[in-house]
Specification:
heterodimer; A: 343 residues; mainly alpha; ABC transporter involved in vitamin B12 uptake, BtuC; two-stranded antiparallel ribbon; 4 strands; B: 448 residues; alpha/beta; Rossmann fold; 2 domains; 7-stranded mixed β-sheet; 13 helices; 17 strands; 37% helix; globular
Chain lengths: 343, 448
C-alpha cells in the first residue's frame, strides 16, 4: 500500500510537467491550428532561464587569496559575488539561494517575447500549409534552439538547486499512519505539483472569466464567425501563443531543481507530451491536463518492480500502449471534441 | 505460365543492392600495392581523432580533442613536451613520428555507433588516417574497434569502461589504456567493506546497455565476495531522465546501499533524485544508508553539484595526483587551456603518445609491427605509475584510484579527492577470467 501511494505521488510531479507542456500545446493547436514541435524546446529554454538568472545573480569579482593555491600552484583566485557584496552576506545569500523561484520574474517576459517572435517571425507563414510542413518547420526550430543553448551552456547538465528550505523531503508515511521513512517525498516536488495546479487554474480562469478569454474560446470554436463580428482574432491568438510559451517556460523554470537542466531535456518531454495531447483529445484543455496526470501516474506504476517482473520492459512502452488503446477505442481521445483532426 | 514484372524501380533497386554487395569486400582492399592501409608516403602522417562533438557527451569529446591537439603539439616538438619528458620510453624525439610531421583529422561520433563508424570510415578512406582513437562510450568503442580491425588500422580506444571492449569483443588491432568495470569492482569493494562494513544489502540501478551490464556484474561479484548481499538489480532505460519511480522502491526494499551503475546524464539525474528522496540521510537496518557511484567522472560530477559530497567511486586518473607525469600533463594542459584536464583527456593524450612511441620503437607504421611493439610493453611516467599493456587482451594494467566527492571543494574543479590508490596487482585478472571470456583477438590485420 505504501509503495502504491509513493508511486501516485511520483506520478504527480511527472504528470505536472506533462500537463503543463500539453496544456500549452493544446492552446496553440486549438487557437492557431498548428502542431508545435518546438514546444519542448520552450520548456528547455524556461529551465535555462533559471540557469541564466542564477548565473546573472552570481556575477562576481575576483580576489586573490595568497594563502591558498590553485591546480597550477599559483595563488588561488576566489570569486565573490556582487550580490553578497552589495546586500551583505545574509540578504545576498538569501537572494542567491532563492534564484530559481526568483527567475520566474525574468522567465515570464522572456518566454512571452520568444513565443511572440516565433509566431510572428516563422510559424505565421505556415498556417495555410499542411500539418506535415508545420511539424517539419517547428521540429527544425527545436533543433536550432537546442544547438544555440548547447553552444552557450555546453552539453553537460548544470546543477540548479532549490532554495535550502525545500532541500529535504516530507515524511508522508508518518502522516498517514505508516512506518516512518516508508513514504518520503521531496519538498520541491510538492512545490512543483502545487505550482502546476496554480498555473493550470490560472489559465482556465483566464479563459473562462475574462472577456479576452471568452473571445479566444469563441475563436477556437468558430474562428470565421468571430472574425465576421469585427474582432481581430489573429492578434489575440498571437498573444495566446505567447501565453502558451510562458506556461511551458514556467514549467521548465520550476523543473530545473528536480533534474539538472541540459540542452536536450525538451526533446525528452516533447514526444510524451504529444501522446498526452492525443490521449486527452486534440484541442481539449481539460483533456490535456487529465491525460497528463493519468499518464504520469501510469508511468510510475509501470516502473514498479512487481509490475516489471510480470511484464518486463513495460515501463518503457506503457504510455504508447495506452495511446494505442485509446486511439483504437476512442479515436478522438478522452475528452476530444467531435470533428477535430478528423477531416 | 510465368509472368515477369520488371519495373524500372525494381531493376534499379536490385542493381544497387547487388552492386553494394559486390563492392563490400573490396572497400578496404581496393587501394594500391601499399604494404598496409594508408601507408604514409609523404613527409606527414595523419591520425584520426573520433570524438563526440555533438550529443550528450560533447563536453567530454571537447576535452578529448584538447588533449589530442596537445599531444600532436608535443609530438611535433612544440610546447613544453608535457609527459614526453616523464615517459619511461625515450624513443620519441619531438620530430613527429619516425620523422614525419603529425597531422590530424577529426570526426564526430555523436555517441552513436553508426555515426561513429561512418566518421571513422571517412577518416580512413578519404583522409588517409593511419590510426583512429577517441570516443566516450563502450558501445561506440566496440563498434569502431570492429571497423578498424576490418580496415587494417590501429584503434587506440578512448574512454570505454565495459569489460567487453577487451573481453568478448577484443580485437587484435584494438588497444585500451582506460581501466574497466572489473577493475572498478576489485578496487572499490575492499574500500566499501572497510568503510561500510561487510554486512550490507545492496540495490543496483543499472543503465541498460553493454557498459551497465558488465559494471553491475563486476560490482555484484566483488561485493558479494566480501560478504555483501545483493537485494535487487534493476535495469533503467538509457533514455530515462527522471529516476524517482526507480528510486522509490529502494526505500522499502530493505537495502542499505544504493549502487548507481549510471554514467553521464543518467548518473547526474539518478544521483540527484536519490539525494532529493533523502536516501543520504536515511538509516536502515540500524546503519546509515549509503550511495555508491562506481565510475566517476569529474565533468559529470560537476553536473550533480553538491550531491556528490562523500560518495565513493573509482576513476582512471585525477588531476590532483602528484607524480611527475601527472604534474607535467596538468601543467601543459592547464597553461594552454586555463583549467585542469579530465580523465578522458588524460587517457586520450596517453594513447596518442603510446601509439607514436610504439611506431618509433617498431620503426614502422605497419599496424602489425605497432601492435607487436605495444603487446607486453611496460612503461611508467604517464600518470598511473608502472603500467603493462598485456599481450593477451590489449588491456592496460595499472593502479586504480578510489575517489570520494569532496566535502569542502576549493574550486569548481576540486570535486573529487583520492582516498586510495589500489595497486595494479589487486585489479589484475587472468586473461581467461569468465567475465572476459567468449572472444579472441584474432590476428592483426594490416589491410591493403
Amino acid at each position: 500500500m505504501d509503495a502504491i501511494i509513493l508511486q501516485i505521488l511520483n506520478g504527480l510531479d511527472k504528470g505536472s510537467a506533462y500537463a503543463l507542456i500539453a496544456l500549452g500545446l493544446t492552446l496553440i493547436f486549438g487557437t492557431l491550428g498548428v502542431v508545435n514541435f518546438a514546444h519542448g524546446a520552450l520548456f528547455m529554454i524556461g529551465a535555462f532561464c533559471a540557469v541564466t538568472f542564477s548565473k546573472f545573480l552570481s556575477i562576481s569579482y575576483t580576489v586573490i587569496d595568497e594563502t591558498k593555491t590553485d591546480f597550477l600552484g599559483n595563488p588561488l583566485k576566489v570569486d565573490l559575488t556582487y550580490v553578497e557584496a552589495w546586500f551583505g552576506q545574509s540578504v545576498g545569500g538569501t537572494i542567491l539561494d532563492w534564484a530559481v523561484p526568483l527567475s520566474i520574474l525574468m522567465a515570464i517576459p522572456v518566454m512571452v517575447i520568444i513565443g511572440f517572435i516565433m509566431e510572428r517571425g516563422l510559424i505565421k507563414h505556415f498556417y495555410a500549409r499542411p500539418h506535415a510542413d508545420q511539424i517539419l518547420v517547428t521540429f527544425g526550430l527545436a533543433i536550432v534552439l537546442q544547438e544555440i543553448i548547447k553552444y552557450f551552456y555546453g552539453a553537460n547538465p548544470i546543477p540548479t538547486p532549490a532554495p535550502d528550505m525545500f532541500r529535504g523531503s516530507f515524511d508522508f508515511g508518518a502522516l498517514l499512519g505508516f512506518d516512518a521513512n516508508t513514504i518520503i517525498y521531496p519538498y520541491w516536488r510538492l512545490v512543483y505539483f502545487l505550482f502546476a495546479a496554480v498555473i493550470i487554474s490560472a489559465v482556465f480562469a483566464f479563459l473562462r472569466f475574462t472577456t479576452f478569454g471568452m473571445v479566444v474560446r469563441a475563436g477556437m470554436a468558430d474562428r470565421e464567425t468571430v472574425g465576421l463580428l469585427g474582432i481581430d482574432i489573429d492578434k489575440r491568438f498571437t498573444l495566446m501563443f505567447g501565453i502558451a510559451a510562458a506556461v511551458a517556460g514556467l514549467a521548465g523554470v520550476m523543473y530545473a531543481p528536480i533534474n539538472s537542466p541540459n540542452y536536450h531535456m525538451g526533446m525528452d518531454f516533447l514526444v510524451l507530451s504529444f501522446v498526452v495531447v492525443v490521449v486527452g483529445g486534440m484541442g481539449s484543455l481539460p483533456g490535456a491536463v487529465l491525460a497528463g496526470f493519468l499518464l504520469g501516474i501510469l508511468e510510475s506504476f509501470a516502473s514498479m518492480n512487481e509490475v516489471k517482473s510480470i511484464l518486463p520492459g513495460i515501463d518503457q512502452i506503457i504510455i504508447y500502449l495506452v495511446a494505442i488503446i485509446i486511439l483504437l477505442t476512442r479515436p478522438r481521445g478522452l475528452m476530444g471534441r467531435k470533428g477535430v483532426m478528423e477531416e | 505460365m510465368s509472368k515477369t514484372t520488371f519495373t524500372r524501380r525494381g531493376v534499379l533497386r536490385t542493381g544497387a543492392v547487388a552492386g553494394a554487395g559486390v563492392a563490400l569486400p573490396t572497400i578496404f582492399t581496393a587501394s594500391s600495392a601499399a604494404a598496409f592501409t594508408n601507408e604514409p608516403t609523404g613527409n606527414t602522417v595523419t591520425l584520426g581523432f573520433n570524438v563526440p562533438q555533438t550529443g550528450p557527451y560533447a563536453d567530454e569529446g571537447a576535452d578529448e580533442l584538447r588533449a589530442y591537439k596537445l599531444a600532436v603539439e608535443h609530438l611535433n616538438g612544440e610546447g613544453d613536451g608535457g609527459m614526453m619528458n616523464t615517459f619511461s620510453s625515450k624513443a620519441l624525439q619531438g620530430n613527429g613520428i619516425l620523422g614525419k610531421k603529425v597531422e590530424f583529422v577529426t570526426g564526430d561520433t555523436q555517441t552513436k555507433s553508426d555515426a561513429a563508424r561512418a566518421s571513422a570510415r571517412s577518416m580512413i578512406e578519404k583522409d588517409g588516417a593511419i590510426m583512429v582513437t577517441g570516443g566516450s562510450s563502450s558501445g561506440v568503442a566496440i563498434a569502431v574497434q570492429g571497423l578498424c580491425q576490418e580496415a587494417g588500422v590501429i584503434f587506440m580506444a578512448g574512454l570505454t569502461h565495459s569489460n567487453d571492449t577487451t573481453g568478448k569483443d577484443k580485437k587484435a588491432n584494438g588497444f585500451r589504456h582506460f581501466f574497466n568495470a572489473y577493475m572498478s569492482g576489485a578496487a572499490l569493494a575492499p574500500v566499501l567493506a572497510a568503510r561500510y562494513g561487510e554486512d550490507r544489502k545492496a540495490y543496483h540501478l543499472t543503465a541498460d546497455y553493454t557498459w551497465g551490464w558488465t559494471q553491475e556484474e563486476s560490482i555484484v561479484a566483488a561485493t558479494e565476495a566480501l560478504g555483501w548481499e545483493t537485494v535487487n538489480t534493476v535495469k533503467t532505460p538509457l533514455s530515462a531522465t527522471d529516476f524517482s519511480s526507480y528510486i522509490a522502491p529502494v526505500m522499502n526494499s530493505g537495502a542499505d546501499v544504493l549502487v548507481l551503475n549510471h554514467y553521464g546524464g543518467n548518473m547526474v539525474n539518478s544521483l540527484t533524485n536519490a539525494v532529493q528522496f533523502g536516501l543520504k540521510n536515511k538509516s536502515v537496518n540500524g546503519k546509515n544508508f549509503e550511495i555508491v557511484v562506481p565510475l566517476y567522472s569529474r565533468l559529470m560530477a560537476r553536473g550533480a553539484g553538491e550531491n556528490v559530497k562523500g560518495i565513493l567511486g573509482s576513476t582512471n586518473w585525477h588531476w590532483s595526483l602528484t607524480d611527475a607525469g601527472s604534474k607535467a600533463f596538468v601543467k601543459s594542459f592547464g597553461e594552454k587551456y586555463g583549467f585542469p584536464p579530465s580523465q578522458a583527456a588524460h587517457t586520450c593524450y596517453v594513447q596518442t603518445l603510446l601509439y607514436a612511441d610504439a611506431a618509433s620503437r617498431a620503426g614502422s607504421f605497419n599496424p602489425c609491427a605497432i601492435g607487436e611493439a605495444l603487446e607486453g610493453f611496460e612503461f611508467d611516467g604517464l600518470g598511473n605509475g608502472k603500467t603493462l599493456y598485456r599481450a593477451d587482451d590489449h588491456q592496460c594494467f595499472k593502479d586504480v584510484l578510489v575517489v570520494q566527492g569532496k566535502e569542502n571543494p576549493q574550486s569548481e574543479f576540486d570535486l573529487l579527492e583520492v582516498v586510495e590508490v589500489t595497486p595494479a596487482a589487486q585489479v589484475t585478472y587472468p586473461p581467461d577470467h569468465p567475465m572476459f571470456a567468449g572472444g579472441s583477438l584474432g590476428s592483426c590485420n594490416p589491410g591493403s
